[in-house]
């Protein structure tokens, strides 16, 4: 038995030396998959997350003598080493407290650090650069009396252990990862019909704004025009209902148009074709219209069956059109994309979309509530029933008298938010402190000072007048917004932390 085994048990085992049985979502009779090495641990994680993490730190909880996998949390690796210590403390606290809330404090933790080498950098150099972060994570977990059994760095197709001191077991140049599809986890996942959706970077690319200069300029001009035409009407109590109805009718036309063109096998080609089917003016009108939260809640009713598939394509396309100073506007279509993905049982895609929504606007209450509900493994059927009820009530009211439209629309948005808050509580209260969001982004709690376009964040109340540009100072919240919590409330509100299965077997 080498030194690594003396301290932590064999790779992929609990301290008692037993192999780690893993329960994975999607298997019909919850079979146990035994992982016996660090290589198998590294290979298993994408199947549990649903994608290959990139530029990510992942903490995975272990329970019991045999190391049953439980809760997990993922966060983008902070770009500044100054942020590593508070990030490590917050991650450890969030994971352990989350497990405790669900009745089972973890007995140990496995840490994964994923990062591709920069240009001219080797995988080994990445491992050495991230070593202090790994040590801070081990210290933060140990301070809460939960040991880190294994800490792995994965880069450039190889992995290194920060725990094993034996060069025969864990060579300095790392160990090559198994070829895709050749591990026991890959075989079990293939048998169960589970697939990995690609890398996190690829999933995010489908939702991020386009960057071609000509496209950005044309789309930004269209958004300027749409904002000038619609924002003052959304803020006007007598005119906003007309904007809401026009927005929903336009969304329905675009969904029908996308339905006439089935998605292509190649995702990039399919997204480009979807973009070409929607004009800059149509995208701009819909993006601005969706800034009204009641319109957005009505749009959330496209959540089931084939209709949901086409709506998801539309919300993705709109998120890609939120360019330039309109980046914050992406919170609405990204939240809708996350909701539809969650409603249709695609939780990995839901977490990615909701994380990006919170990156665009950390104060966006709808995304915060959905993100926490998804991470808490709540059943989306509760919200679906609420939305079905609102649609049915509105349809009956409109059939009785046209004047009932306004009365029927008013409680809908409130009911959606009340239903979510009743299930998940106030978002963003699982951990305190400040954490980095994604590499290269601002720390939560600070807002860009660059003036941006007006957003009718709460059309039900007073807001800035037509043409007003809102400038936010760091740490201040727009007083016209109603939100489930402000920046700095914790990881659940930053838009970057993904956690789920607190204490449950996977």
Automatic annotation (TrEMBL):
Q: By its UniProt entry, which Pfam families does this protein fall under?
A: DUF4192
* Biased amino acid composition, Basic residues: 415-424
Q: Which domain of life is it from?
A: Bacteria
Where does this protein have compositionally biased stretches of type Low complexity?
425-449
Which residue stretches does the UniProt record annotate as biased composition, category Basic and acidic residues? 391-401
Which segments carry the region annotation Disordered?
1-24, 391-506
Tell me which InterPro entries the record gives. Answer: DUF4192
> Where is the sequence biased in composition, kind Gly residues?
483-493
User: What protein is this chain from?
Assistant: DUF4192 domain-containing protein
- The organism is Streptomyces thermolilacinus SPC6
């Amino acid at each position: 038995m080498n030194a690594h085994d003396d301290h932590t048990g064999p790779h992929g085992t609990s301290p008692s030396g037993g192999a780690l049985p893993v329960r994975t979502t999607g298997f019909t009779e919850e079979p146990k998959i035994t992982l016996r090495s660090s290589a198998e641990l590294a290979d298993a994680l994408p199947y549990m997350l649903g994608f290959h993490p990139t530029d990510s730190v992942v903490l995975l909880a272990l329970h019991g003598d045999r190391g049953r996998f439980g809760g997990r949390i993922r966060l983008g690796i902070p770009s500044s080493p100054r942020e590593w210590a508070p990030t490590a403390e917050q991650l450890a606290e969030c994971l352990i407290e989350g497990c405790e809330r669900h009745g089972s404090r973890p007995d140990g933790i496995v840490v994964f650090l994923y990062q591709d080498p920069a240009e001219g950098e080797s995988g080994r150099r990445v491992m050495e650069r991230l070593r202090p972060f790994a040590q801070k994570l081990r210290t933060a977990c140990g301070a809460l009396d939960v040991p880190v059994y294994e800490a792995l760095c994965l880069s450039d197709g190889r992995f290194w252990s920060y725990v094993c001191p034996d060069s025969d077991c864990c060579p300095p140049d790392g160990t090559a990862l198994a070829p895709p599809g050749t591990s026991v986890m890959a075989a079990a996942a293939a048998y169960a019909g589970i697939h990995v959706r690609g890398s996190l970077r690829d999933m995010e690319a489908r939702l991020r704004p386009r960057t071609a200069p000509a496209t950005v300029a044309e789309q930004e001009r269209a958004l300027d025009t749409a904002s000038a035409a619609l924002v003052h009407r959304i803020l006007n109590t007598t005119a906003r209902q007309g904007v809401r109805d026009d927005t929903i009718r336009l969304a329905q036309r675009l969904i029908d148009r996308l339905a006439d063109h089935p998605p292509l096998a190649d995702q990039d080609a399919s997204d480009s074709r979807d973009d070409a089917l929607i004009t800059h003016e149509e995208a701009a009108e819909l993006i601005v219209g969706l800034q009204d939260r009641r319109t957005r809640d009505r749009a959330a009713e496209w959540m089931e069956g084939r209709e949901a598939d086409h709506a998801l394509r539309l919300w993705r396309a709109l998120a890609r059109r939120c360019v330039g100073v309109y980046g914050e506007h992406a919170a609405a279509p990204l939240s809708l994309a996350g909701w539809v993905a969650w409603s249709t049982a695609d939780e990995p895609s839901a977490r990615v979309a909701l994380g990006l929504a919170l990156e665009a606007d950390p104060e966006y209450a709808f995304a915060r509530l959905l993100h926490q509900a998804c991470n808490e493994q709540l059943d989306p059927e509760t919200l679906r029933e609420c939305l079905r009820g609102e649609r049915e009530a509105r349809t009956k009211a409109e059939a009785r008298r046209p004047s009932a439209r306004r009365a029927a629309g008013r409680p809908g948005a409130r009911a959606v938010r009340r239903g979510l808050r009743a299930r998940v509580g106030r978002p963003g209260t699982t951990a305190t402190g400040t954490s980095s969001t994604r590499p290269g982004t601002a720390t939560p709690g600070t807002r860009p000072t660059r003036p941006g376009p007006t957003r009718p964040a709460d059309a039900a109340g007073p807001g800035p007048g037509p043409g007003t540009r809102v400038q936010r100072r760091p740490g201040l919240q727009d007083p016209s917004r109603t939100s489930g919590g402000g920046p700095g409330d914790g990881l659940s509100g930053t838009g970057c932390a993904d956690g789920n299965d607190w204490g449950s077997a996977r």
